[in-house]
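Order emerges. As here.
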Amino acid sequence: MQIFDIPIDKTQKEATRHGSFTFPVGIYETQLDLNVLGYVNWHWHDEMQYAYVTVGTVSFYVNRTKITLKQGQGIFINSGVLHMAKAAGRPDSTYVCIDVHPTLLRGYPGNAVDQKYIRPYLKNEQFTYCVFQDTQPDERKLLEHLQEIFEEYSRQERGYEYKIYVHLLIIWWELIHLSVPEVDTSPVSSTDNERLKTLLSYIQEHYKEKLTLQECANSIGLCTSECCRFFKRSMNCTIFTYLTNYRIEQSISTLLSTTKSISEVAYDNGFSSTSYFIDKFHKKTGRTPLEFRKNHNKGYYL
C-alpha cells in the first residue's frame, strides 16, 4: 500500500491512522515519484518509524540532519520527531515504512517494561534517530527483522500480527541496547523542536494571507535574521520555499474537491496572481493546475 499525499494538521502532525486500534502498526511501500510533490513532506507523528530502502537512494531529513541511505540500508525515527524524505538519485527511489505506535510495546500503563525500557527513550533528544548499515552484523540483523515484518504483513497468514509483534520487540531491545544503553530517564526538553512546530503551525494558520518574515519571526520570539537561520537549519529550505510548497499542497485539495476556477484556487490559497500560481505549480508537479485536475478526474493520477 502506498500513501500518495500525507494529510497533516496545523502543527505538521500527520493525520493518517497507522494500522488500527487493535493493531496499531502501519506498513507502506513508498515510491517517491508517485507522491503528489515527488517527495514526502515534513511531518511528525506519535508512531515510531522504521524504514529501509529497496530501490535507489533516499535522503531522510530528521530535524537538522540529512541522512542519505542506499538500497539495503535503513533508519529508525523516534516518536514526535519532524522528518521528511526525498529521492537522492533515481526519481523512483522506494522505501518500506513501518509505523508503530508505542502503545503496542508498552503494555498496561506503569508496568516495569514501560517505565524502564519504553517511556525513557520516547521523545528524548539523545535518541531521535538511528541508522542501520547493511555492512554491520548487528544492524544487518535489524534490517532482516524489518524485511521479515514486511513479508509477514504482505502475506497476512494466520498469526501474522503475533509474528510482527515479536519482531518489533526484538528490534526495540536491540535498538536501545546498541544505541543508547544508558539513556537518562529524566525528561529532556526539546525547545527547538517545539519552536519549529509553533512556527509551522503559524504558517499553516496564515498561509492564505500575505505573510511577512517579521510576522513569522514574531510568532516564535526571534529576530528576522535568526528566524531565517533557524528555519534553514531545521528544514533545509527557506521559510518562503516552505510556504510556497504548502500553498501548492493546499491548492491540490481545492482543485480536486471543488469546481472553482484556477484563479479562485490561486487566490484562495495565498498566491498573489494566477500566473505565479500556475508557474509554481507546474515546476513542482510537472503539470499545470488544469492538467492536474483533468487527469485526476479521468483517474490517471491518485
Summary: The first strand starts at residue 25 and ends at 31. DSSP finds eleven helices and nine strands in the chain. Confidence is low (pLDDT under 50) at residues 183-189.
